[in-house]
Amino acid sequence: MQEQERKTRFAAQWAAHHTRVLRYVERRVDDLAVADDITQKVFAVLWQKDVGVEPLPSGWLFVTAANHLRHHYRDTQRKRAADETTQILLVAARREVAMTDILILREAVEMLGPHARDLVALHYWDGLTQSEIADYLGMTPGAVATGLSRARARLRLHLTSEDEQQGGRIHA
Length: 172
Hints:
By secondary structure, this protein is mostly helical.
């Protein structure tokens, strides 16, 4: 009888909250299949954790969904970093650039803010002109030029040695 009560409790939780949890997850991921998978995992955990007479509170479902979303974001970020590293290796091989130079530059670019990183990547990595970047990002070409100039200045500071900075000789 206890197993049947557990199934009934689970079915009630599913009916009451599945759509809400799914919508919550869908708003936070780009892929509907991923959202469905995360939601299924949330309810699988609910099934494993539900051992009492009372159902777990609905807030628990959203906390569990948030935890699964964090795992998803972390895994996606790791995959993206691995893909970027592969791309960097390919570019280094094609352009005959020393790997250490590319890794140092990558570290410097990572220190920029997200907007500056986008400008630098779009211009230098993707080869877009300032006008194309302006169209793509909905900015003026002047704003793109200013943003790129500031990003280059920050990169210069990061890439030059302290001796060069103190002596006023910045070569980047």
